[in-house]
Amino acid sequence: MTHRLYRNALLGLPLAALALAGCNQAAGTMGPAPRVTQASAPAPDTAGQVATAVAAKLNTQVGQAIEGGVQVLGAQAEGPNVVADFGVPIAGAGLTEDERAEVGPLFTDALRSGFCADDTAQTFFDLGNTLRVRFQGSDGVDLADVSLNSCSG
After folding, report:
1. CA–CA distance, 53 with 120 (Å, rounded to integer)
2. DSSP 62
3. Which domains, and CATH codes, for the chain?
4. Alpha-carbon gap, residue 136 to 125, rounded angstroms
5. Residue 141: is it exposed, middle or buried by C-beta count within 10 angstroms (0-12/13-18/19+)?
6. Angle between helices 13-21 and 46-59 (to 10 degrees)
7. Among 113, 114, 135, 123, which Cα is nearest to 20's?
8. Secretion signal: which residues (predicted)?
9. ∠ at Cα 30 (136, 72), nearest 5°?
10. Ramachandran angles phi, psi of 44, nearest 5°
11. How far apart are CA 151 and CA 113, in angstroms?
């Protein structure tokens, strides 16, 4: 039963990740992210500025329910890294050891699938940014800590 619940909660993760993808244009100030090549490497603070904008955009969505019951709990920029906390409607304490082992890879795949559906997602990574999402169960138990640094698996 619990196994089915966390799989159902994953249905909301691609939508949550798409919300993240739209953060590259935070507050209308960033515009579409430029394509980066080795010859046009970004200034050192560009990745940090993008991370700050993404975290700020995510924080405007705190407490809003996303499909599947997923919620943004908060986000912050740590240099070029965005660290976001998401709540999922699953009690982590009720998961078996086998279910816990499946959660991380499932959440990683769902997050990558949703986030990378946006055309500017790979540019976000090309700038040197990373996305880390910590997933917390409805009972406050940590379920997974997922980090992405590219759109390729």
Report:
1. 14
2. B
3. 2-26+47-148 (3.30.300.250)
4. 24
5. middle
6. 130
7. 114
8. 1-26
9. 15
10. -55, -30
11. 8
Q: Closest Cα partner for 136 from 97, 85, 102?
A: 85
* 81-101 confidence digits (pLDDT tens): 999 999 988 888 988 888 888
Question: What type of residue sits at position 6?
Answer: Y
For residue 11, what are its two tokens? Answer: 């249905």
Beta-sheet strand order (sheet of 65-66) = 65-66, 70-78, 81-87, 130-136, 142-148
Tokens standing for 133? 């999402």
Q: Is the CB of residue 109 less than 8 Å from the CB of residue 14?
A: no
Q: What are phi and psi of 88, to 5 degrees?
A: -120, 150
Encode pLDDT of 105-149 as tens digits.
Answer: 888 988 898 888 888 888 999 999 999 999 999 999 999 999 999
